[in-house]
Amino acid sequence: MQKSKIYFLLTPFLGILISLNVFAQETRKPNVIFIMCDDLNDYEGVFGGHPQAKTPNIDKLAATGVQFVNAQSNVPVCQPSRNSLFTGVYPHDSKDFGWTDHRKQAVLKNNKTLMKLFQENGYTTLGTGKLTHGKATDDWNEWGMKEQHNYGPFFFDGKKTSVNPSVPSPYNSIGPIDGSYGRLSDGGISQGEWGEKGLVYGWDNKPLKYTNDDNRDLLQDELHAQWAVSKLNDLEKRETEQPFFMGIGFVRPHTPLHAPDKYFDMFPLDEIQLDNWLKNDEKDTYYNNNFEANKDNKGPKYYKMLLESYGGNREIALKHFLQAYLACVTFVDEQIGKVVDALNRSKFKENTIVVFTSDHGWQMGEKSYLFKNSPWEESARIPLIIKTPETKGEKVEHPVSLIDIYPTLMEYCSLQGDTKLNSKGGNLGGFSLLPFLENSKTKDWSGPNGALTVVGNYGYGNKKAINKQNYSYRTQRYRYILYGDGSEELYDHKKDPYEWKNIAHKKSLKKIKKSLKSEMLHIIKTR
Predict the structure, then answer these.
(1) CATH number of 469's domain
(2) Which of 282, 284, 387, 525 is the most interior residue, by most CB within 10 Å?
(3) b/e per residue, 494-519, with b = 16+ CB within 10 A?
(4) Each residue of 247-265: pLDDT tens digit?
(5) Residue 141: pLDDT band with limits 50, 70, 90
(6) Count of domains observed in the chain
(7) Cβ-count burial 359-398 (b if 16+ within 10 Å, e if not)
(8) Residue 456 in contact with residue 97, Cβ under 8 Å?
(9) What domain range includes position 82?
């Protein structure tokens, strides 16, 4: 038979095969493992935030996934960041800038969470740890640990929850959450009995047995990892092929910064390196004039108190705090590794997408600021890695943000249905990152040129207009900040990666600043 005749006969079958392949891609139902850390900045090896960071498991995940090196939080504080991520609604659209449960927030209570949409599309949803704030809902078919046990461990002095005894004054006066850091052994030996002096965790002061690293109760994040590994093993034994969405919310490195001693031993105090810094770097910024959420302003306050606790010695003070932070990052990296390794050993390896991220970053003394909830790089930037069975270790330079995760999973997992419960819900704000997952260098993405972060100027109980919020807009080269009072900051990351020099006043950059402002306002739409 002639080749032309063979081709003629095969052509219809090739067309059918291609059509079937396209159909399969459009209706794929992969499993999803969503891993989220709390207060985790870019202190991971692959993200380069600190040269001594030890995160072999996160690094390994990045080597097989797509690493978004310029990902940003949409609001750099816990609850509103998570509310936005899991509903897909921008904070400026919902006017959710503070600590309101998404189920009670005026707009977001009318939106479906990402988990609910997965549920409606035939997925079983399983979760544990700190994902959304508040108690687990019927969005989850199965839930792990009780939410009240997520925080800690704390030191219990026999009467009340206190700070780790090794933390000096006045920093220890901040309290047992933000004001505590240090080794577990600093809390002393305890047998895990109620009312006993020693380590406890959760708001109900559940006792934690501790003798040493090898003879102790597991910490919360270890229990979350254990639950996830066990659940993966259980899922393998099921006869059903129902896909699953599993969410694991690790608490570390959220304060209090406590971890087993072996992680502190990895970072000897006298060997810790501090990043470059500029004295009085905050002098050309306008943050302190535009933030009303706390009259005492935690970031500058915590920084000042930490230095006072070590006789005003910046280097010694930050080394103590940084040691605890790095130890907690390595600790949580190990828990992440347990989950990913369990996945790779399972039958689900080739049909599961893994998303790893954080709700926001953390400022480590830059601009005399020690906290989250600032408009600058250290607080706004987050790690983001998405691994699919097809990805092979690529990096995306284009700025993206947490708002893009909801539409990404919708498209990749072929989810159908409205993201709103009713017409009062907020619109889906992000854009699918699937083009970047298919080609990390693509120019064919329908999303914005930069990523938007809002630092809410809400003042507890005082609802402010959208145009009075503080906005930070990060492109690949620039960060532009517009405060509620009209003040501006502009940083050129090509020349100034530490954001040391505010160049918003430069006449030669007037057009660039105008263009960035226009792009940012186009996203906000309401100014």
Answers:
(1) 3.40.720.10
(2) 387
(3) eeeebbeebbbeeeebeebbeebbeb
(4) 999 999 999 999 999 999 9
(5) very high
(6) 1
(7) bbbbbbbbbbbbbbbbbbbbbbbbbbbbbbeebeebebeb
(8) yes
(9) 31-153+219-524
